[in-house]
């Protein structure tokens, strides 16, 4: 279907919707909490530094930046707290600034799940500037914390490579204690909350790990039993546990340093709501796009094209489901009426 450059924004507005529940089905801090901590994390203090950086003082600023880039998230946060000088040095780092301003949930998730000793800000920043799901190559709006790789909603739910097991299960199978495993494999200390469209709250903090990456880590270190062909019994809460190991990550266009909005297809949702729709239609419905990706998809989605044609005609002939207005299946407010 021919659309002009001037029509592109209108096509996206008419034929796409924003699934707000995608944000809710991952580790997340309430927006009011993020708003409170944001100024302290993103900016240095107003008053200029008085003390120096001690023995680091004589190093050129570029060298200090290089050292900072090599530190893990927790160490860099601790260094930032040393004094105002350190706070300025860290706050001005490109990677730190970009993460603190655009991906606060992601940073807080790394800290709250006990993974902050693993990634550097550079690794997180590079994930924010990439767009593809490491499993399927389509756009991925989540960061899977055990591997620190992007993934899409469907792969987060279904990919065998992202299977999650509890630490106690993995410990028994590997023959290594949970304490020992703590320094050998990535472990996510889960955060209680609601993670699925069924809105069932999971209130306990447990330790989980991603099966494949944990097996690979032990193999590389030549430790524990070889679990390559081990049949793990997966928890009945597998889907929820996967979401408890993931956080939303925006895509940052590094030419402008601006985060880019994502879109889902209204047409694909409407196809899925028809009786007898297939699993493939569900996968397509769950796909998320950046603007250009959505416009490409629009060219192959007859239902999205019908919405556009209907909207352009004098009388709108297609009625849209209320789901689009609501932003998905998960309620955005908690029981107290606050934004979740
Ligand atoms: Zn994927
Ligand atoms: Zn579509």
Automatic annotation (TrEMBL):
Highest taxon above the source species: Eukaryota
Protein name per its UniProtKB record: F-box domain-containing protein
Region (Disordered): 311-340
Ranges of residues in domain F-box: 53-99
InterPro entries in UniProt: F-box-like_dom_sf, F-box_dom
PROSITE patterns to which the protein is assigned, alphabetical: FBOX (PS50181)
Lineage: Eukaryota, Fungi, Dikarya, Ascomycota, Pezizomycotina
Organism: Stachybotrys elegans
